[in-house]
Design brief:
CATH architecture of the largest domain: 3-Layer(aba) Sandwich
Helix content: 40-55%
CATH class of the largest domain: Alpha Beta
Number of helices: 8
Number of domains: 2
Number of strands: 7
Strand order of the largest sheet: 2-1-3-6-7
Structural class: alpha/beta
Length: 236
């Protein structure tokens, strides 16, 4: 049941995407009463994250937009049967597709990805693309009275010029994942996947809700307490 009439649009990689097997803070938001449209995807690049969000903004009205940026060096590849056979299936981690695309992420198992990483990956151009799109999204949201909240999922090597340009849009000195490996919740991490465990997702859900969706914060905390009690009892 929705706790308010606000509509939220969110886009991110597997750290946030709510349509995968492992639950994230987006799923916690939904079960806590937030009306969320999620256009992100598992292991997808910043190109996917921002492009899908921009297209969604032109299709419907939203009261709040939440963007979770991912790391650089991710490459999304359109697939056909031959590419699935040669690229996707043999990959030990990124052996899946999403909406007709192979989110190869930073996998370098295939020679084509190794060559791309060595000769074609251009970090400064990728960041410039990020900067341009963030500025346009911020301008659009201001014009349409939409609340915009942007988070770094992982570290991005912004230059000083980048930081001064987008520092009012995103906190360039902090990312969501950094605290996870040193947290008490990392002991529950499934090392077969990079998505943080559900206990840490509750941590992220509370952090993000405090800033952009405070009306669901109490419900998140109650659900977290129930889940923590159940998890701790199982581990003892």
């Amino acid at each position: 049941m929705s706790l308010s009439n606000k509509k939220y649009l969110v886009s991110g990689c597997g750290l946030s995407f709510g349509g995968q097997e492992r639950k994230t803070w987006v799923n916690i938001f939904r079960t806590s009463g937030a009306d969320i449209t999620d256009v992100g995807g598992p292991a997808v690049s910043n190109q996917w994250i921002l492009n899908k969000l921009i297209l969604a903004l032109f299709e419907n009205h939203y009261d709040s937009v939440i963007i979770q940026l991912t790391s650089l060096g991710k490459l999304d590849v359109e697939v056909d049967p031959e590419r699935v056979e040669q690229l996707v299936r043999p990959d030990t981690i990124r052996n899946f597709t999403h909406q007709g695309v192979w989110p190869s992420s930073a996998s370098l198992e295939h020679p084509s990805k190794q060559l791309w990483n060595q000769w074609l990956f251009s970090p400064s151009l990728e960041i410039e693309d990020l900067v341009c799109k963030l500025l346009l999204i911020d301008n659009y949201c201001q014009q349409h009275h939409i609340r915009l909240q942007v988070y770094q999922g992982y570290d991005i090597p912004w230059s000083d010029t980048n930081r001064s340009t987008v520092g009012h849009i995103v906190n360039t000195d902090k990312n969501l994942y950094d605290a996870y490996p040193d947290s008490e919740y990392y002991q529950y991490h499934d090392h077969s996947n990079t998505v943080p465990c559900l206990l840490y997702q509750f941590e992220l859900a509370e952090q993000i809700a405090q800033e952009c969706c405070p009306e669901i914060l109490d419900r998140i905390k109650k659900t977290r307490q129930q889940y923590e009690t159940k998890t701790i009892c199982k581990s003892q």
